[in-house]
Amino acid sequence: MMNAVQLGAHNQQLAEMQQLIFTEPVLARQKCGQLLAHARHAFDAPTFISAALSLSLIEDQLGDLQQAISVLSEALVFAEEFKQKQRIPQLLEQIGRCHYSQANYPQALDYWHQCALQCGQQNDLLETRALALIGLGQICDACGENAQAIHLHQLAHDLLLSINNYFLLTMAKINWAVNLQKTGQSEAARTILQESLQLSLAHELPHHAAESQFRLAEIAISLDELILAEQYIEEGLMTVALTPYHWCEINLLALWAQLSYRAGRLAQALDIVKRGLHIAEEDGLRHLVFRLSQQAVLYARAGGLNAIADEYQRKIDFLQVHLHTEIAQPNALNLQMLRDLIA
Fold this sequence. Notes:
By secondary structure, the chain is mostly helical. It has helices at residues 4-20, 25-41, 45-62, 65-81, 88-101, 105-119, 126-142, 146-160, 166-182, 186-202, 206-222, 226-242, 246-262, 266-283, 286-302, 306-322, 324-328, 339-342.
């Protein structure tokens, strides 16, 4: 059994580690691993569950998502065995997030749907329900169901307005804006992203600031505001240089390569996209490997580098064979199950 001294030490270690998640994630990962080991040994279920949830936030930036899923699954067992069932929806939500980041969309859909159903309308699970709705909106987005995605993200946003959780509020704003942009509502999307950027900077959320900058750059490119786009990309890359956020860094590099290609700087475009591909492959972000490989083929062919283009095309062909469910056929997902959630 744990004594009060051990419990107090675990709580202090948890608080110290959580302060580092978004500013020094590598150090946070190290401290989190130590805390998980101590909590496992002491059968301290509440600390183990909290540390597992923190690890998933860390790995969402650093990329070892399989390790996060493994630890979250272990935490689910702790929650069942040690009467921590109120934590189960949080764990389901984060497992869904890890699967989504790896383009495992059917698994993500299943975990997020389970989470939203378990949360119901309970006030103490309002934040977790909002996160699940955001995730389900992202699944709708991946399937091209942008109107349904907007509805889910707006529902999540409205739930979060009564809570002082700027991490979640900015997440909802970013995702809502993405789907507004995809339905041609660029100015509404830009306004929401500028709000998100200001809130993220004011509340020291650099990863959401970087993602806001990335999305603002996308809008600027779509409106042919190329100087503004380059400015947002530059600011975003400066932000991720200070706090690692690999998914966002890859996407910023992909946009920068796109701008370089449009300006006729073919060699630079290919070099930039190679940088992004290296990070995506290291982290196992297969849907990003797929998309950046398509860019690499385009830039290599335009520069007359056909052997290099063929090499990237082989990578694309391999991914299409092995990831057809996630990448080529996301519309095969059953979204009918979401009707009860958004009624």
